[in-house]
Amino acid sequence: MSAKDLRGFEDLRAFMTRGLALVVWMVIAPASAEDYPTKPIKLVVPFSAGSGQDLRARHVGNLLSPRLGQPIVIDNRPGADGAIGTALAAKAKPDGYTLVLCNSATLSANPALMPDLPYEPLRDFVPIVRLVISSGVVAVGTASEAQTLQQLLALGRRKPGALRYGSGSAYAHMLGELLTRRTGVEWVYVPYKGDAQALADLMGGHIDLMFSFPILLLPQAKAGNVRILAVAGPHRMPAMPEVPTVSEQGLQNSELRAWAGICAPSGTPSTVVGKLNREVLAAIMAPAVKAEVENQGYEVSANSPGEFLAFIKADMSRTAALVKELAISAEH
Q1: Domain identity same for 220 and 322
Q2: In this structure, is the dihedral angle defined by the CA atoms of residues 241, 148, 193 and 82, taken in order, positive or negative?
Q3: For the chain, which terminus, N or C, has the lower number of CB atoms within 10 Å?
Q4: pTM of whole model > 0.85?
């Protein structure tokens, strides 16, 4: 083979190599935000079907699916207060086709309560958008003689250790312990695997009071099946403006708020994160949807991925300090 032929062969081989590399890049390169998504998206919900978090995820999925042109498939993976499903999502391929419902339990409370947590929030996830914030509430059964929080506390002081309170989540439990510490009233803590079970026992008279969040309790309160005595937040709920806050009833520094959002595994392309943020906000900030969510006792506000990240960091710090103050653990 002549030198000229050899040079021609080398040029051809270089051209083919570059062409092959281009084909490989086109196959493996992540889709642009304009192309995404091209197939169904899985939204991991680390809580049981029918729970408040599950209902929130399905609501958002139904709003988001037509905007993206793809189904949002809910994948319930409950257990360990959300730790099992969240750990599973952390190991998913970071391509935008596996998302996870993240909340104050999975990203704030669990790291403070579980020393062997199988994921690290700030390392393993990228925040996409915060969906809602809600304040905790204190509720009693309709048979209770307590019509106000102060009457409930007076009843508890008259009968120390006699009243039983239930909760089915780490955050609800923390609210119960917080009010125990602030008031000095001795309650008997009854743990449940979920708030729905605690609610059934409250309505059945098997426990005396319950700490939880609006999505579960508000419908039952409006139906006359339970009585909400106080909101553990900075202001009253527009959905139930007659219910005063704990501070209005004399309890300071006794607020506890919870939140829920959507996160993705670390490494998910920023273009995909940005598109998801825009589309979710466009869906939930629509006036009719926003009004519907607020009528459930929740607050909705526009937020960027960066703002959501800063919010999570601050909440993790506050929760860790509260867990230390209350001296509680996942087994407590």
Answers
A1: no
A2: positive
A3: N
A4: no
